[in-house]
Design a protein that fits this description.
With 541 residues, this protein is of the alpha+beta class. The strands form three sheets. Strands 11, 12, 13, 14, 15, 16, 17 and 18 form an eight-stranded mixed β-sheet that branches. Strands 2-1-5-4-3 form a five-stranded antiparallel β-sheet, with helices on one face. The chain has a five-stranded antiparallel β-sheet with strand order 8-7-6-10-9. A hairpin with a 2-residue loop joins strand 7 and strand 8. Helix 1 runs antiparallel to helix 2, helix 1 runs parallel beside helix 4 and helix 5 packs antiparallel against helix 9.
Length: 541
């Protein structure tokens, strides 16, 4: 039978549709208000869902409401309304039936269920239970209302899922950059970023905060999603490596467009990596691009987290670099930091044969009181002299142990102990000769007219030994040094040496293996040493 236009049946059907639409709007508005309040008050998921389940129960006439989904910590949880009751139909939830059918009958109850859909993925399930089987019209209305309610839940859970994803990725970025090897950690963090952000190009450059000439420059360059240049493996002298190091000032000043242009990058997002709060220093720059033209809010948040974690990791690396640079040359520092367990492998205290040099400015007290006089000049001379002395120690492969007054102490052998005894001692002897010559030349330096007419001229006294040392990191400040009677003998021998005299313990002279370079064997009785020191002077060279 066809319903006449304007008939009672048609009017009733229209009224039902309007009432159903109004019921859906009412539930939607109430849910929106509850979710807005939950957002403003930063309610936990359980509390927010409690308010929402109460609403759907009230609007549908159901007895109970049930939701299972992921909470803020990514754990699967069950939520039931009324609070404190137990959902008796868990078998229908966990066997997946609710994902295929929406209505069930069990023990006189009617269960209406629907999966929760977040970005096309099942994010849980929601269900209502009725104590008896509702009329078909009422069941259909409840199903419609449940659909509206689930849409509201889906949107709310989508925001939680996004926050959960962001938290997960930031955790992965943080974990990657905890890698003890900086280069490996950065590569892993870039891979995490690429897995979660639509990056096409990435250009990262970073350096030690006190260095600007490119020696410590590191870089990672991704093009068309592939890591194509990496400072840790890029051959020195290659076109890209030469270009990047010659543009090292680009890292701190941030104004050189030639660098991104060199790699065909024109439109990009740029971030800087800053060290320090009061005295800020730029230690790196990051450039990223996407074919989409713009990064999403999610993308930008992850990039910012990447920059934050990377900045802190580089600051930590620079602090480690600066600490090691007190004793070791830059190539040695770079080699140590490229080893995952460098402290235990190379710096932990151990007993080893080491070549030792003690070198002291001769007549320094007289020089200070009669010639330089001013404390500022005395300090300047020590700085000038010792800076070059330490450079000589490093250039010959040695370790700067410490400076005691105007005496510099150097060690050869640590930290890798990869030379023969002869080469170790020869390197130490070469350093002693170069330090002596450097000290002599200060008297001819135009920057030091005070030393020009000094009689006798400025010079140094030097003692060398090759002995077993317990050498490594010691003390509360982890100073790299050594201890043994052989160390003490080197110090005592330096006290015996005259101006510009280089005295070598007999064992070191024998290890060098060139007897023609040394004078006759001599002995000296010194304080606090039970046996006389046996040594040979280095003949003039």
């Amino acid at each position: 039978m066809t319903t006449e236009p304007g008939s009672r049946e048609e009017v009733a059907a229209l009224r039902r549709r309007l009432e159903a639409a109004a019921a859906r709007d009412a539930l939607r508005d109430a849910s929106d208000e509850a979710l807005e309040r939950a957002t403003i008050e930063r309610q936990p998921l359980g509390r927010a869902l409690g308010h929402l389940m109460r609403l759907v129960v009230e609007h549908t006439g159901a007895s109970m409401a049930f939701v299972t989904t992921f909470d803020e910590s990514s754990a699967v949880r069950e939520f039931v309304w009324p609070v404190g009751t137990k959902w008796p139909f868990s078998d229908l939830i966990y066997d997946g039936d609710l994902g295929r059918e929406s209505v069930y009958h069990q023990d006189g109850w009617t269960i209406l269920g629907q999966p929760l859909d977040v970005a096309g993925e099942c994010y849980g399930k929601a269900a209502l239970s009725f104590e008896s089987e509702p009329a078909e019209s009422r069941l259909e209305e409840a199903r419609s209302l449940l659909g509206v309610w689930c849409e509201e839940i889906d949107n709310y859970l989508a925001a939680i899922a996004l926050a959960r994803k962001k938290h997960q990725v930031t955790g992965e970025l943080s974990e990657a950059l905890k890698d003890p090897l900086l280069d490996r950690g950065i590569r892993r963090a870039i891979e995490v970023l690429q897995d979660n952000v639509e990056l096409d190009d990435l250009l990262l450059a970073y350096r030690h905060e006190d260095e600007i000439d490119g020696r410590t420059l590191g870089y990672k360059i991704v093009q068309d999603t592939n890591l194509v240049h990496d400072s840790s493996v890029e051959p020195r002298g290659s076109d890209v490596d030469t270009f990047m190091r010659s543009h090292a000032p680009w890292v701190p000043d941030g104004k050189d467009a030639d660098v991104p242009g060199y790699f065909g990058i024109t439109k990009y997002r740029e971030d800087v990596l800053i060290s320090g709060v009061k005295d800020q220093t730029l230690v790196g720059r990051l450039i990223v691009t996407t074919r989409r033209g713009e990064f999403t809010t999610f993308d930008r948040d992850l990039i910012e987290r990447f920059v934050d974690y990377l900045r802190q990791r580089i600051v930590d690396f620079n602090r480690e670099w600066k600490y090691l640079s007190r004793c070791f040359s830059q190539p040695v520092v770079a080699r140590l930091l490229a080893e995952e367990d460098y402290v235990s492998r190379f710096l932990a205290p151990r007993e080893k044969d080491v070549a030792i040099v003690y070198c002291d400015i001769s007549g320094f007290t007289r020089l200070s009181e009669r010639v330089l006089k001013e404390p500022a000049l005395i300090g300047k001379l020590i700085d000038t002299w010792s800076e070059r002395v330490v450079d000589i120690i490093w250039q010959t492969g040695g370790v700067f142990d410490k400076m005691v007054g105007d005496c510099v102490i150097g060690l050869w052998g640590p930290p890798f102990f990869e030379w023969s005894p002869q080469e170790t001692c020869t390197r130490a002897l070469d350093a002693a000769i170069r330090i002596r010559d450097h000290s002599r030349n200060l008297g001819h330096d135009p920057a030091w007219p005070q030393l020009k007419s000094l009689e006798p001229p400025i010079g140094v006294s030097t003692g060398l030994n090759y002995a077993s040392l317990f050498v490594g990191l010691f003390g509360p400040d982890d100073a790299f040094t050594g201890f043994s009677s052989g160390m003490n003998n080197a110090a005592r021998l330096q006290g015996v040496a005259l101006r510009d005299e280089i005295l070598c313990m007999d064992g070191l002279a024998e290890t060098v293996g060139e007897p023609e370079r040394f004078g006759a064997l001599r002995e000296a009785v010194v304080k606090n040493v039970s046996h006389p020191l046996r040594f040979r002077p280095l003949l003039s060279s």
